[in-house]
Fold:
Amino acid sequence: MAIDIQMPALSPTMEEGTLAKWMVKEGDTVSSGDVLAEIETDKATMEVESIDEGVVGRIVVAEGTENVKVGTVILQLLEDGEDASALSSPAAAAPQAAPAASPEPAPTPAAAPVRKAAPPEPSIPTNIKMVELTVRDALRDAMAEEMRRDPHVFVMGEEVAEYQGAYKVTRGLLDEFGAKRVVDTPITEHGFAGIGVGAAMGGLKPIVEFMTFNFAMQAIDHIINSAAKTLYMSGGQMRCPIVFRGPNGAASRVGAQHSQDYSSWYAHVPGLKVIAPYDAADAKGLLKAAIRDPNPVVFLEHELLYGETFEVPDMDDFLIPIGKAKVRREGADVTIVAHSRMVGRSLEAADILAGQGIDAEVIDLRTLRPLDTDTVIESVKKTNRIVCAEEGWGQHGVGAEISAVVTQEAFDYLDAPPARVHQEDVPLPYAANLEALSLPGVQKVVEAARKVCYKD
Amino acid sequence: MRYLTAIYFISELMRGIMAKKAKSPKTNKAELTDYYRDMLLIRRFEEKAGQLYGMGQIAGFCHLYIGQEAVVVGMRHAMKEGDQMITSYRDHGHMLACGMTARGVMAELTGRIGGYSRGKGGSMHMFSVEKNFYGGHGIVGAQVPIGAGLGFANKYLENGAVSLAFFGDGAANQGQVYETFNMAELWDLPVVFIIENNQYAMGTSVERSSAETELYKRGISFGIEGVQVNGMDVLAVREAGKKAIKHARDGKGPMILEMKTYRYRGHSMSDPAKYRTRDEVKEVREERDPIDQVKERLIEEGWADQDSLKAIDKEIKAIVSDSADFALESPEPDPSELYTDVLLEA
Ligand SMILES: Cc1ncc(C[n+]2csc(CCOP(=O)(O)OP(=O)(O)O)c2C)c(N)n1
Ligand SMILES: [Mg+2]
Structure:
């Protein structure tokens, strides 16, 4: 039996890729470690190495083929002494998923409800053309536009320049702006965050990228003690216009030390602005606003949203005001408040709820500090019920804050106690089934909404 | 101990150069065969892990140790029973060298109950109290002060043990490393700092990240003696390791060993591989491979022939494929495991 070589998964989130180039041809002898092919994904070009020895029997997937699913047989290798008769027709794409437990199954919305359009963004003229952009490219465009506009803006962080960004968010910036303004740092978060703060005090407008916010814990002293408190401590003299940005929250199966949501950590701190966008338009408009803002801003992105595509207004100077929540879906029965990736899950939950006769309103907070409580209270006055959904832990979380504000300011309007959806109160486990149980998914939002509507 | 002279610099430099050129230290059939077996186990284990990753059975980050085997195996054979190891996320090789089972490590990689962390840690986070392996740390540099803390406890408890703290060239730039160097030397802690200089931190070469690229010199301002070692030569590693561990055990404080080594595979599984040429990797594999070197020596000395090497190969393959079978058959953790091990009953 020939050895079937499959399209490998080369990253935690890869589902398919382009077979960019074959490095071997039929009849070649390969040994363990030889590069067989080059594969491209939206993030990177990667090499597939052989771990077996043998002769290339058949190249099954041609060079240049796009969207090859992980698990598809791409090549058949003949082992010692086999000839071409050993070549079977390879089983059709058979991606081997880990036995049980993939994360939450994609819920099929009952009775295919039409998703209600979000009300228009007041800051976007209604006749503007929209273009499709991934969140990743929207962030990159925001930085590039601001760097063109203001020579004081520069980016620094680990792998931001030559590598084009660990998650490719800074792709192309080195080419356009050069090494003076796109600065690769050593792995020294505490040091370069401090250097960023000093550069901001010295008159520049740094964008400091953390490869992920998990590593910003090394630097949190400078974010809070040096950046957030300086204006106040200096009686209003000393400015620190800086943006700290990077992916926040759980990626996929990367374990406890690489999967933490810091939303409530930073949202706790006076002297900071904290932004956590969901879609590409907000990512772009809010990042541009953050870079122009005279204050230190913590900008929390999400790795699992980088590759998602959304419509973004095609206009110069597209800015979204910091501190304004957005009603993503209007509804009458229950308010669901979320930010970042939980917005998408809440919208999916709202679709499911619609099929069950519950009309949910979904509010995307977008900014966590200052917190737009007016929009939330307004909504609760209408729906009389609220569910707060976040990816982080519940205790002292964003939902805890919103529940408190709503109880304080709209107590008389509530028909049920506020409900919270959040990660289980444990460090994030690696095992697929435990990870899926730990993270808040669509189903948990649906359940919480039904509960506050007294439907269960 | 805090002698610092120009002569010191030069002699250390010479030592580094000589370590590369000198003929490998004395050895014998039994021990060299052991080292060969230990290194081969790591290599084959890692290849299997890479394969299981490609099949979707391992997920998240998975940092392979292929190319660096001589470092951990050489150090392992310089240690004594009771000495401790701690390292980064690139930890599979260290665990196998510590005598942790291939089954337990592989099952952790697949996230199953039979894994060392019952599936809750993953590739980067495994530990063994029994084998004195202290992790498995995902935050670059974090294991360095923790390793010195193990040394602190050893000294305090007067247990005679030495702690070995492994970290990368990239980690060698973290501030906490220098805070640790200072305290470790100030308090003469029994710890050895082993910098696994594989020349890259993700896509950043040492030259692009480091003002001083000779990493064994990084302890000079603290008075810590540093040595550069050919980390592709298991015997050179063992010799340097023995000296450094003795130094630490004798109460003379820490030493720094800079192991010049190389990782063949990408940083983790997804790696754009644009930061180095294919030829660079090929050249190291072909000319400096730690396992091939030992294999040649075994044959040269008449301590092995193709048949005996094949037999070892077979034996290792069996261990590895058994570990993979185990890792795929072991069940996922019970859902109740989600809430256990957060805190202990006080
Ligand atoms: C504090 C921190 N910053 C960044 C990262 C992301 N990261 C993981 S490994 C790595 C490179 C480390 O390189 P090196 O220390 O040379 O070790 P190697 O991977 O080569 O073994 C980086 C930047 C991290 N895990 N922790
Ligand atoms: Mg390295």
About this structure: Chain A has three domains: 3-93, 130-313, 326-452.
